[in-house]
């Protein structure tokens, strides 16, 4: 590795170049993990004295019904959200490579929601789903004779989690479209032509040739989409605030409210530590799973 | 056989059409709604996609009744500071890691890449407390510094993979000609990396302009809020009273990124996917 080193550069120069970034990164990203862990081992509301309580906060999580609900919601949000983003992203990419013209214009149009802030996306959907004043979706349901389905969608505790999951997926699915599209268009045309000559129909070409060839891209996207959805926050927080009740509460929104609305710094910090460990653990597990299938397959 | 051939021709076109409608509809709807008079909006479901008139009153009221212009200015200043600082810190760091290869540089790179897996939430309270301690809450730095910290891993990752492509001979030629370490970096490596820099700037701009969590936590004064936070407050404040102005405010908040996107469309897509797919 060191053979690629530039001639005549002293080691101190390297450290000089890297230190400013290192200091800021450590201060902002790394130190807070230790700090949060420290805070998670005590009880504190920001005003009185910090009191050491050991792992009491972590034990409290076990019996906390809100936390349990938030965790279940989070699993739904991540699983359904990831599946929707990958499947829709792939469907968008595959349909795009199957048409003859306007591919670039359409790809640019597809990607629009990904450049808009999640707050704006959330507010637009809040308006579209609103019942008072009647938003577009309720109005449309009534005008096509499905008025019985019209309702204040974001007050329906049975729907809020699904809605925030889908709106979040809506904002990000075009990223996966773009990733899959560029992998698909860069495939070797000779291989595809050979498959066609061998009599493979369109579906066979897709599932037996194209998708296996971009398997590495798909695997990387799974890691990406899962770690993205595990960090979901903005859209649920803005659209429903986790409510009504705890119907769309995620661990991240619950943590945020515990920290900054209830000033329960100890318990909130233990939830933050839980999120870090969850993100690291799940990404490592997925990576392991993929490298295992690569070895056996 | 011919019917199957037909299916594979029209099915993708149909799918593309459906996806296009879904992806464009919300934005087109909000633009259209923002151009309708309050009377038209009050007449019933705001479901007409083509407004009767090009009414701009909603925009006038949105700017009049809220510090929208101030939010716009704050977002711009924060974006410029964040992007500038990210580039200034990331470019030399990546150059040192990839080209100077000092002992420990691999460890330093992996240390930075660890940051890609850390969710921002864990840093909120510690940074909130530190900003209070240093008296930086409700200043631009309150969101610039955390954002730069969390943007550094992606920027360093993109710069290192770019610098890998610059042949060492090119840089060594400069140093043989008498240029020192700094001169070589500044007058050879930096100009060569303009493409990587643009990618990182575009990626950062979209990210920073849309950032919500840090801004919502560390900025509580109206005078300093960014557009996403201001928009959120505006809607909870005015959303129940003035729908037209709400739609207008939403449009104003998305306009800068959409405008950039219309100019640099493929570049934006490439930047965002490059920033997303790392390692």
From TrEMBL, chain A:
Q: How does it sit in the membrane?
A: Multi-pass membrane protein
Q: Which PROSITE patterns match?
A: ABC_TM1
Q: Which residues cross the membrane?
A: 12-38, 75-97, 109-129, 169-187, 207-230, 265-286
Q: Which UniProt keywords apply?
A: Cell membrane, Membrane, Transmembrane, Transmembrane helix, Transport
Q: What is its main location?
A: membrane
Q: Where in the cell is it found?
A: Cell membrane
Domain named ABC transmembrane type-1 is located at 71-286
GO biological-process terms attached to the record:
transmembrane transport
One GO CC term on file: plasma membrane
Please name the Pfam families in this protein's record. BPD_transp_1
Fetch the SUPFAM superfamilies from UniProt: MetI-like
Determine the domain of life of the protein's source. Answer: Bacteria
Q: Which family does it belong to?
A: Belongs to the binding-protein-dependent transport system permease family.
Q: Which PANTHER family match?
A: ABC TRANSPORTER PERMEASE PROTEIN, INNER MEMBRANE ABC TRANSPORTER PERMEASE PROTEIN YCJO
Its recorded name reads ABC transmembrane type-1 domain-containing protein
TrEMBL record, chain B:
**Keyword presence, Transferase:** no
What's an example Gene Ontology biological process for this entry? transmembrane transport
Broad class of the protein's primary localization = membrane
Q: How does it sit in the membrane?
A: Multi-pass membrane protein
Q: Which GO terms describe its cellular component?
A: plasma membrane
Q: Which Gene3D superfamilies match?
A: MetI-like
Q: Which UniProt keywords apply?
A: Cell membrane, Membrane, Sugar transport, Transmembrane, Transmembrane helix, Transport
Question: One Pfam annotation, family name?
Answer: BPD_transp_1
What residue ranges are annotated as transmembrane? 7-31, 71-96, 108-128, 140-163, 184-209, 244-264
Record carries keyword Cytoplasm: no
Superkingdom, taxonomy of origin: Bacteria
Q: Where in the cell is it found?
A: Cell membrane
Q: Which InterPro entries match?
A: BP-dep_ABC_trans_perm, MetI-like, MetI-like_sf
Q: Where is the ABC transmembrane type-1 domain?
A: 72-264
What is this protein for, i.e. what is its function? Part of the ABC transporter complex MalEFGK involved in maltose/maltodextrin import. Probably responsible for the translocation of the substrate across the membrane.
Could you say which protein family the record assigns here?
Answer: Belongs to the binding-protein-dependent transport system permease family. MalFG subfamily.
User: Protein name, please?
Assistant: Maltose/maltodextrin transport system permease protein MalG
Taxonomic classification, please?
A: Bacteria, Pseudomonadati, Pseudomonadota, Alphaproteobacteria, Hyphomicrobiales
């Amino acid at each position: 590795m060191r053979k690629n080193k530039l001639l005549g550069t002293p080691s101190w120069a390297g450290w000089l170049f890297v230190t400013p970034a290192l200091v800021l990164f450590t201060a902002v990203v790394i130190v807070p993990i230790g700090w949060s862990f420290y805070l998670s081992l005590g009880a504190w509301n920001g005003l009185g004295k910090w009191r050491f309580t050991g792992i009491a906060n972590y034990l409290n999580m076990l019996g906390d019904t809100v936390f349990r609900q938030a965790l279940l919601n989070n699993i739904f949000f991540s699983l359904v959200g990831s599946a929707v983003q990958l499947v829709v992203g792939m469907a968008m990419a595959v349909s795009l490579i199957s048409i003859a013209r306007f591919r670039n214009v359409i790809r640019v149009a597809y990607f629009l929601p990904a450049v808009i802030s999640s707050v704006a996306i959330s507010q637009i959907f809040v308006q579209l789903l609103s019942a008072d004043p009647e938003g577009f979706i309720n109005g449309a349901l009534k005008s096509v004779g499905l008025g019985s389905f019209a309702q204040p969608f974001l007050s329906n505790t049975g729907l809020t989690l699904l809605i925030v999951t889908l709106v979040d997926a809506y904002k990000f699915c075009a990223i996966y479209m773009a990733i899959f599209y560029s992998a698909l268009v860069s495939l070797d045309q000779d291989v595809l032509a050979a498959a066609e000559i061998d009599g493979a129909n369109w579906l066979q070409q897709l599932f037996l040739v194209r998708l296996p060839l971009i398997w590495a891209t798909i695997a990387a996207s799974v890691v990406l989409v899962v770690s993205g959805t595990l960090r979901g926050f903005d859209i649920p927080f803005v659209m429903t605030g986790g409510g009504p009740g705890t119907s769309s509460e995620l661990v991240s929104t619950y943590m945020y409210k515990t920290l900054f609305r209830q000033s329960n710094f100890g318990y909130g910090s233990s939830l933050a530590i839980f999120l870090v460990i969850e993100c690291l653990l799940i990404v490592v597990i997925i990576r392991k799973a993929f490298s295992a299938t690569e070895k056996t397959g | 056989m011919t019917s199957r051939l037909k299916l594979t021709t029209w099915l993708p076109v149909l799918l593309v059409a459906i996806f296009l409608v879904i992806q464009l509809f919300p934005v087109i709807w909000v633009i259209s709604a923002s151009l309708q008079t309050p009377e038209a909006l009050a007449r019933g479901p705001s479901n007409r996609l083509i407004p009767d008139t090009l009414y701009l009153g909603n925009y006038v009221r949105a700017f009049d009744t809220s510090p929208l212009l101030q939010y716009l200015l704050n977002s711009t200043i924060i974006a410029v500071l964040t992007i500038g600082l990210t580039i200034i810190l990331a470019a030399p760091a990546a150059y040192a890691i990839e080209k100077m290869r000092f002992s420990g540089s691999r460890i330093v790179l992996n240390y930075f890449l660890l940051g890609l897996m850390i969710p921002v939430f864990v840093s909120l309270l510690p940074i909130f407390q530190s900003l209070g301690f240093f008296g930086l809450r409700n200043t631009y730095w309150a969101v610039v510094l955390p954002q730069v910290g969390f943007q550094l891993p992606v920027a360093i990752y993109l710069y290192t993979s770019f610098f890998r492509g610059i042949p060492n001979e090119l840089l060594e030629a400069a140093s043989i000609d008498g240029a020192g370490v700094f001169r070589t970096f500044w007058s050879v490596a930096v100009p060569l990396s303009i493409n990587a820099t643009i990618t990182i700037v575009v990626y950062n701009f979209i990210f920073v302009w849309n950032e919500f969590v840090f801004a919502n936590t560390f900025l509580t004064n109206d005078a300093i809020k960014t557009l996403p936070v201001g928009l959120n407050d505006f809607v909870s404040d005015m959303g129940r009273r003035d729908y037209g102005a709400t739609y207008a405010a939403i449009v104003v908040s998305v306009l800068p990124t959409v405008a950039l996107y219309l100019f640099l469309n493929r570049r934006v897509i490439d930047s965002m996917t490059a920033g997303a797919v790392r390692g």
